[in-house]
């Protein structure tokens, strides 16, 4: 156990040295590549304005998203009405989607319990 801890500390030290040596170059390169997204001057007021714009833009997009959801739901209803014309590919996609939703629910439950399968903390 002590050997693994020593190895982990050594790797962490190497990573820290690498970051201290190359981190500022990477940071400057990242800012240069994405300078079109940087707002000038970078003040708290500008950040607050941008966060409010993001919030209200997202809120304004809710009706559009709801309409898209209704269209998808209508499409599914039409498929269900004409299920005798359903192709194997469509049924497979629906089955995979249901399986994915179920799996995400189960994984979410496990994560919510602290990665335990019984639900009890040890």
TrEMBL record:
<keyword id="KW-0066">ATP synthesis</keyword>
<keyword id="KW-0472">Membrane</keyword>
<keyword id="KW-0375">Hydrogen ion transport</keyword>
<dbReference type="Pfam" id="PF04718">
    <property type="entry name" value="ATP-synt_G"/>
</dbReference>
<dbReference type="GO" id="GO:0015078">
    <property type="term" value="F:proton transmembrane transporter activity"/>
</dbReference>
<protein>
    <submittedName>
        <fullName>Uncharacterized protein LOC101497430</fullName>
    </submittedName>
</protein>
<comment type="similarity">
    <text>Belongs to the ATPase g subunit family.</text>
</comment>
<keyword id="KW-0406">Ion transport</keyword>
<dbReference type="GO" id="GO:0015986">
    <property type="term" value="P:proton motive force-driven ATP synthesis"/>
</dbReference>
<dbReference type="GO" id="GO:0045259">
    <property type="term" value="C:proton-transporting ATP synthase complex"/>
</dbReference>
<keyword id="KW-0813">Transport</keyword>
<dbReference type="InterPro" id="IPR006808">
    <property type="entry name" value="ATP_synth_F0_gsu_mt"/>
</dbReference>
<keyword id="KW-0138">CF(0)</keyword>
<dbReference type="GO" id="GO:0031966">
    <property type="term" value="C:mitochondrial membrane"/>
</dbReference>
<keyword id="KW-0496">Mitochondrion</keyword>
